[in-house]
Amino acid sequence: MSVFIIRRLLQSLGVIFVMSMIVFFGVNVVGNPVDILASDDMTQEQIQAFVARLGLDRPIYEQYWYFVLNALRGDLGNSFVFAEPALKLILQRLPATLELALASMFLSVVIGIPLGIYAGLRPEARSSKVIMASSILGFSLPTFWVGLMFIMVFAVMLGWLPSTGRGDTTELLGIQVSFLTWDGLQHLLLPAINLALFKMSLVIRLARAGTREVALQDYVKFARAKGLSARRVVLVHIMKNIMIPVVTVLGLELGGVIAFSVVTETVFAWPGIGKLLIDSIQLLDRPVVVAYLIITVLMFILINLVVDILYSVLDPRVRLKDVKS
Amino acid sequence: MKRMLSLAGAMLAAVILTALPARAKELTIGLASEPTSMDPHFHNLGPNNSLLSHLFDGLIDQDENQQLVPGLAVSWKALDDLTWEFKLRQGVKWHDGSPFTADDVIFTFERAPNVEGSPGSFGLYTKGKTLVKVDDFTIHMKTAEPWPLLPQDVSSIMIISRKNGEGATTADYNSGKAAIGTGRYKYAEYVPGDRIVMERNEGWWGNKGEWTKLTFKPIKSSPSRVAALLAGDVDLIEQTPTVDIERLKKDPNLNLSEGISNRVIYLHMDHWRDDSPFIKGKDGSSIKNPLKDHRVRLALSKAINRPAIVSRVMEDVAVPAGQLLPPGFFGVSENLKPLEYDPEGAKKLLADAGYPDGFKLTLHGPNDRYINDAKIAEAIGQMLSRIGVQTEVVTMPRSVFFNRASRGGPDGTPEFSFFLVGWGSGTGEASSPLRSLLHSYDKERGFGAANRGRYSNPEVDKLIEEAVVTIDDAKRGAALARATDLAIGDVGIIPLHYQVNVWASKKGIKYRARTDEATTAFSAYSE
Known about the structure:
Order of helices and strands of chain A: HHHHHHHEEHHHHHH
Largest interface: A-B, 52 and 55 residues
Largest sheet of chain A: 2 strands, antiparallel
Distance between the termini of chain A: 12 Å
CATH topology of the domain at 86-143 and 196-324 in chain A: MetI-like fold
CATH architecture of the largest domain in chain B: Roll
Distance between the termini of chain B: 47 Å
Number of strands of chain A: 2
Oligomer: heterodimer
């Protein structure tokens, strides 16, 4: 297993290198940050000096070379807009996004799996049909629209919850978190549900399909015949066996949620990295975009690794081994 | 027992009520774009400047109409063509209690153009000025050539303290360590992406205003910003989307305040190429650039129904434009009115110019820069097609648009033939758009930096050059107006409308609209 992990990590380095090249050159093809950042009244000479200061007057391969040299020292460049290290900006906002992503993951698992199993065990019941129909809505309604509707209903019309922003934070293990204060929790609820809807629907459908298949298997019949309680049959024998697809999909989704929760963060003005990314793209803040995507790649690689390891825990038949041996 | 309980309850309530102090007046503002720093000299950018004007003062301030009013200088005057004298306000204290003197001003002008990593420096305003300290409260500014806009330039620079600013980086301002001004408000908290909090400076030299605590929240998404106001999470929002204005006006719990801005939306066109890349004959063949013909330019301008754009596309929050700045600004022309909509006259002009059947044209424009920019471009495309100029409309994000519009062509020349842009006059007078948009492109002398159509008229150039070194206000104003008359008469650009900005607030709060589009707490007041 350790050989497997080491090999995977080495492969990852190659992926990151290729990725950095694609992203760097790709981002540099679009527009010119100077036109966005320079004030209207600047003269041609001042604009030229500005271009030189950002290093944009050099050939692109030269810019890339300096980028790689600095990156090897852990410096992913300075933001054009904030003049602060891009990495620092991202890490500063990462806790807010992680909190939102984990909260929405938690909601989709805690609500999605029981509903899915229920619908799988009683496929003909009316309640199951309602669950399945709602899950289609969860899939198909666009996130930004649902988010705005949530704000309209719960913040504007009912006034139960705040509309936007992150609320009070407290420090937990050196990280600012908001779920420990009542105000923070209120602010977290709407965006978390908004972000969870899609995944929840996904989990419901996976869990239902899995349950329907597993419920007919011999070992479930045998467990029943042995006189085990329905509770034990469902919680141990069925649930454990439907988890493999659920874990796979959730693993991929977690990466997606952390990296690209752009829409929800924008609608709810949540101060996370998704909002930073979209702002940076609009302002052509290239160093931040490049750093962001490189971190995202790293994250996906790590999550996939963890998912592979989880497989072997859930299903003893899966062995993590060196492919060659 | 029950009665005793309720009695105790009433007493408790009474105690709580009396114990509460008079409610502090707080104001929460929803911003459309987030300021990028707490350093007043980091980036010359609208959102930064308007936010930091709470913490810092300039020697001269601009009021709601961009008129100059005394700030940290009580008076200023030109001693001769090259020397200006500023008398500083005495007894002003920085937020840390140290006194404000001429040394702070000298230090500010040294630092402002040299901020490490600044994406848009204030060197523009400090350039060419030498400061001499006469005594602790008198400063002389010398220029190499006469510079009548010196007070405007000075009003763009916020004064920082030498004691706290020496050696301070932008990060020190962001953390609050160096963000010590003389302004109405003191720095309290800055959480990038989430909020900026300020507290009232009880020792401010002017009228302190009514709000004791300010919270600024960046809410970029327009529907969310409106929803935050409706939900009562913010008291005031800027850049109210035009589609919502009708509905918000009817809401009895809200106030809307609107005001004309210094921003004109206009069409710029290719004045210099004989073969313009986005103009073709009706049959697709290449033709000689028709936009070089004055009659064709005038025809295009006459073909545009400005009142219709204002009422249909802009929901009545815009004002048809006939020149570069709305009436009332310094240096505008009295003679120019928005051109009448006259499709028949336009067709006749086109026929006279030798294009009875029109030609093919591509209109380019941004789709995320100005209010409803893409929709305006589409409306214009249809209006031009109606007089026979078959117009294709292409819009794109500003990150792509401005680079192509300024230098997308061969050898870094402007790429487009006909395009929609806007210009806000930061100085609040007519020399800013004239110098940048309508003076011939002249890299060496820094004129015409945004003249993406390369319009060139020696007479206009001469008037502009004359105006920017004339200290006498009346003469300068007349020269600027004359230059505007000539350039607009030439159809150097086609003005469309002036943007109107709309602020929405909770009932009980009103906003004095600002022409510079800034959102400041001191322009908000209770009814």
